[in-house]
Design brief:
The chain is α+β, with helices and mostly antiparallel strands. The protein is built from ten helices and eight strands.
C-alpha cells in the first residue's frame, strides 16, 4: 500500500511541477546586476509558472509563488559550467535543494533584504538552511499534494491554513516555511503577531512568533522588517537617458556625447538619412549661389543706369 501511495504521489508531484506554456515575465532583472546585488541572507521572491505556482498565487492573492534564500557559494556544489549554487529552496517532490542564481534569470523576481541583521546572525540563518539540504518530501502524503490540484474557492481567513495543510515533514515543502524557520533561529521578525500591553500612558508592543508553516512568499514582500532592493535603482537610474520609440532624436546641441542614441539608429536601409541630408545641403548651396549671382547682376544694372 505504501508503494502505491508513493507512486501516486510522485505522479501528482510531477504534474504540479510542469510549466504552464505562454509565460512571459514583464520585467525580468538584468542578470549581471542581480548577481552583483544579492547578499547572503537576502530572500529572492519568484513569480513561478508551474501548475503549483498558479495555485499558490491564487491562494495567497499575490504575484509571488516561490521564495529562495541567498547564501554564500556552497563548497563543492556547482553547475557543469562552474557556476556555484547560492540559493536554498524547497520544491514539490524534491524537498530542500540548492540551485544556481541563473535558474531564475528569466523570471520576474524581487529581492527582500533583512534590515540590521548582524553578520553572526546572517551566518546562522544561512547555515540553518544549508544544513537542511536533502530534507525530502514524503510523496505518500496524498492529501498534502492534492490541495494544489484544484483551485477551489477558499475564504480568505482559511487560505493560510490551506497552504499549511499537512503535518510533519510534508509541510516543509512550502519554501517560505523553511526560510521562516531559518530567520526564527535568530529571532528575526517577518510578520509576527503583535499585542499591546501596559497602561494607556505606557503601552508597549509584544511580538509573538507565528507557526512557520503559515508563512507565504508574499509575507517577505509586505514585512516592515525587510527592504525591497531593486537592481535597476540600486546601481543608478536616469530617466532622461531612456530612448522612447515615439520620441525623435534630440538635437545635436542638446544631445550628450555619450547619449542613448547610437549613430544610425534612426536610419533604415530603405531610406537612409545621410544621402537626403547631403541632397538638401547641395540644394541650399545652389540656391545661395543663384541668389548671389542675381544680386550681382542687379547691382551692375544699377551702376550702368
Amino acid at each position: 500500500m505504501g508503494f502505491v501511495l508513493d507512486r501516486i504521489g510522485k505522479l501528482i508531484a510531477g504534474y504540479l511541477q510542469k510549466e504552464i506554456p505562454g509565460y512571459e515575465p514583464f520585467t525580468p532583472s538584468d542578470p549581471q546586476r542581480l548577481r552583483a546585488l544579492l547578499q547572503p541572507g537576502d530572500v529572492l521572491l519568484v513569480e513561478g509558472n508551474s501548475q503549483v505556482a498558479s495555485i499558490i498565487k491564487y491562494l495567497t492573492q499575490s504575484t509571488w509563488s516561490h521564495a529562495a534564500l541567498c547564501v554564500e557559494p556552497i563548497d563543492g556544489v556547482c553547475e557543469p559550467d562552474g557556476e556555484p549554487h547560492v540559493l536554498i529552496e524547497a520544491n514539490v517532490g524534491e524537498g530542500v535543494t540548492s540551485a544556481p542564481l541563473s535558474k531564475y534569470f528569466s523570471f520576474h523576481t524581487r529581492v527582500c533584504r533583512p534590515i540590521g541583521l548582524s553578520y553572526e546572525d546572517r551566518v546562522t540563518v544561512c547555515r540553518y538552511a544549508i544544513n537542511r539540504i536533502g530534507f525530502g518530501y514524503d510523496t505518500k502524503n496524498i492529501l498534502d499534494l492534492m490541495r494544489f490540484l484544484v483551485p477551489l474557492p477558499v475564504p480568505q481567513r482559511f487560505r493560510r491554513r490551506m497552504i499549511a495543510l499537512g503535518s510533519g515533514d510534508p509541510t516543509k515543502i512550502i519554501c517560505s516555511a523553511l526560510i521562516a524557520q531559518a530567520f526564527g533561529a535568530v529571532r528575526y521578525p517577518i510578520l509576527p503577531k503583535i499585542t499591546e500591553a501596559g497602561s494607556r500612558q505606557a503601552r508597549r508592543e509584544i511580538l509573538h512568533i507565528r507557526d512557520s508553516s503559515l508563512y507565504m512568499p508574499r509575507d517577505f514582500d509586505i514585512s516592515p522588517y525587510f527592504a525591497i532592493v531593486k537592481p535597476t535603482i540600486e546601481y543608478g537610474f536616469d530617466y532622461t537617458a531612456l530612448h522612447w520609440a515615439d520620441r525623435p532624436k534630440p538635437l545635436a546641441e542638446v544631445a550628450a556625447e555619450n547619449g542613448p542614441f547610437p549613430e544610425g539608429i534612426f536610419e533604415t536601409p530603405e531610406a537612409p538619412l545621410a544621402p537626403v541630408l547631403e541632397g538638401l545641403t547641395s540644394l541650399l548651396h545652389s540656391a545661395a549661389a543663384e541668389d548671389e549671382e542675381t544680386g550681382r547682376d542687379r547691382r551692375a544694372v544699377d551702376l550702368d543706369a
